[in-house]
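Minutes, structural biology subgroup

Action item carried over from last meeting: produce the structure token record for 2-C-methyl-D-erythritol 4-phosphate cytidylyltransferase (Qingrenia yutianensis). EB confirmed the sequence was re-checked against the source entry. Recorded below for completeness.
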Amino acid sequence: MKNKISAVVAASGIGARTRLDIPKQFYEIDGVPILAYTVRTLCEIKKINEIIVAVPEEYLLYTSDFVKKLGLSKVSKIIPGGETRQKTVLKCLCEVDGNADFVLIHDGARPFVDKEDILNCIADAEKFGASAVGARCADTLKKSDFDGFITETVDRENVYRIYTPQIFKKNLILNAHENADKNAVNVTDDCALIEKYGTKVKITETERNNLKITTRDDIMYAEAVLKWE
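Output recorded by EB:
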């Protein structure tokens, strides 16, 4: 039987490190906001049934306008985000279709996500219950003390940079988020919650660029790549 998959796009951050006058996800490249590039890619995945987008409250109308203008028809709901990314994701999970089997969680500021990586991640989630796109770390990694001096070289053999999307059985991720909220558990990504509650997450390995736009340099890179596409 075909699984129903809902996608959640977390796009309610303010993006202070880009030093822009607006949140980075609403910066326009060729007249199209970065967030729209991200959502458009998800819309093109046939296995995704609906998309829920969380944005700052003051950008609800703007988001609704470009969703209609660009024909992003799989967007079923646009909601205000929470105080943190974690709270934003929980709010989105509470809005997901009750019949959904899996939830795909993606950062709104990752417009370069590859469709093949998404499909591979979905396949891994359907097989293992939880998956996340990641790339092996090519750089040498060091640990430091509080004064910034190297204390240790980290073996990078099994070290990955974890991206989004991250995909989970709906009840698994919803229960993990609800428990974390109830017990004031804070983590940096959704995989960490799943790990904390004892479930293994399969890494969907990629060699493709899946940059999360964070700095002004990232904006310049995005302009070059997205205009070229």
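Discussion: The chain is about 35% helix and 25% strand.
Next step: EB to file the record with the rest of the batch.
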